[in-house]
Amino acid sequence: MRKQKRVIGLILLIVIINLLDPCYGYIRSKAASFDEINHPDVFLKQVNGDMQCTLVAVTMLLRRAAMLSGYPNWADITTDQVRKDAWVEGVGLKYSFSHAGFTVNKAQFGNDRVNEAIALLQKHPEGIVIYDQYGRSRPHAVLLTDYTDGIFYCADPSDAVAYGRIPVNQGLVRVEEAEFYYYISGPSIPAPTASVTEGGAGLPVIDISPEADIITEANNPAAYDISARGNLPITNTLPATDDTPSTDIPAVIENMQERDISRYEIELSRTSFYYDGNEKKPAVTIIGLEENTDYVLSYINNVNPGTAAIAISGIGNYTGVVIKYFEIADADIHSLFNDIAVSVTNQSIQAGKTATVKVNLPEPLISVKEFGVDEQCIGNEVKISYSSSNSKIAKVNSKGKITGKKKGKANITVTAELTNGTKKEFSFAIKVK
């Protein structure tokens, strides 16, 4: 009876693994060889127009990862299928996404890109996608397949170069020029098996013979470690000696969903800016999460007037991508001038105590005490001055610091002035107790 329960429990756990990671089925084919993952049928070219190179390159990456993991239906991983999980229209490939049981992340190269790429390929036999995002002619990405005998090889999605695995110098991206790379962060991918030596390179097929590799806890304990797949926690696993194994399926799925960053409330510090030729980067707040630990930010079209965006991508234990938008307005100096705001830290103070006036200028206006002499710079200058209706009650200095002198009330006036003489005044009462 105990043995029957044990078998039932193992079957249930395998079902859960299938739900969480569709790459892994009951029957697995043998892991692919080096020749097989480099077979021409594995590689793809752009078919949906320009600006799809990252999508196509990552699709090839996922195909090779699936083959090395023994996934017999690797050919089902197509550009159109990956697009559903990985692509944001008008923006491009997500910084982090999951497809077919694999999690893909984007990262930035350091200074030594060549040696870093070599180290990454040693760790990732499936390859990495290198991306020259700031290319001289246009951005482009290729799948870097391997580093063999001192030569980098790649598969380039562009129709302008040869099909299949080629030396990287025959492609359109050089390793030393790539700023970013995409890689599979989980699960880990096994190294290729020995290459096929007879009959040429073949492709993996579904093995349904009695000798096929049936996943069991004994021959593949890693397959039962659900927590290793994308760092997803599991509340209950099957104890080796438990007479009545139990697995909390809803809890597993709920934990997976809760780690999707789209379920969190995300706030931007600002949603509107004025154009000044500089990047606009509103801060992002996600309660309970920390930037660069749980998520990373990527700002898109955040210089020129129009709609800008922030891609907020989960990393580490978190997944998913959220796009938030903000506006950059093209305004003249007078529009900016009208958006000046003035506040005071305290309108009621004790004699001998202080309060401070705060003047908030929209970018690119600059607060000055006196106008400068450089005609190219003074156009954005705003002269700020302060005055008190009764300095014997409340005195204000040139920095906006108010000091209570004796009991009574006084009006504090803040004057903002442009170089052409346009003025705007702000006045408020101060009570000294």
Q: Could you report the average pLDDT, rounded to the nearest whole number? A: 77
CATH architecture level-2 label of the largest domain? Alpha-Beta Complex
Distance between the termini: 85 Å
Please give the CATH class of the largest domain.
Alpha Beta
- Helix fraction by DSSP (H/I, runs of at least 4): 10-25%
Structural class by sheet pairing and helices: alpha+beta
Query: How much of the sequence is in beta strands?
Result: 25-35%
Q: Over the alpha carbons, how many angstroms does the gyration radius reach?
A: 31 Å
Uncertain spans, ≥5 residues at pLDDT below 50?
A: 10-28, 196-254
Shape: elongated
CATH fold-level name of the largest domain: Cathepsin B, Chain A
Descriptive account of the structure:
By secondary structure, the chain is α+β, with helices and mostly antiparallel strands. The protein has three domains: 27-214, Alpha-Beta Complex (Cathepsin B, Chain A), CATH 3.90.70; 261-329, Immunoglobulin-like; 333-432, Immunoglobulin-like. Helix content is 17%, strand content 30%. The protein contains seven helices and 26 strands. The protein has helices spanning 2-20, 34-37, 53-68, 79-86, 113-123, 249-258, 333-337; strands at 27-28, 87-88, 92-93, 96-99, 102-108, 128-132, 140-148, 151-155, 166-167, 180-186, 213-214, 266-268, 272-274, 284-286, 295-300, 306-314, 321-329, 341-344, 348-349, 354-360, 366-368, 381-388, 394-396, 401-404, 408-417, 423-432. Strands 4-5-10-6-7-8-9 form a seven-stranded antiparallel beta sheet. A hairpin with a 5-residue loop joins strand 15 and strand 16 (306-314). Helix 3 crosses helix 4. The longest helix has 19 residues, at 2-20. The radius of gyration is 31 Å and the shape is elongated. It starts with a helix and ends with a strand. Mean pLDDT is 77; it is low at 10-28 and 196-254.
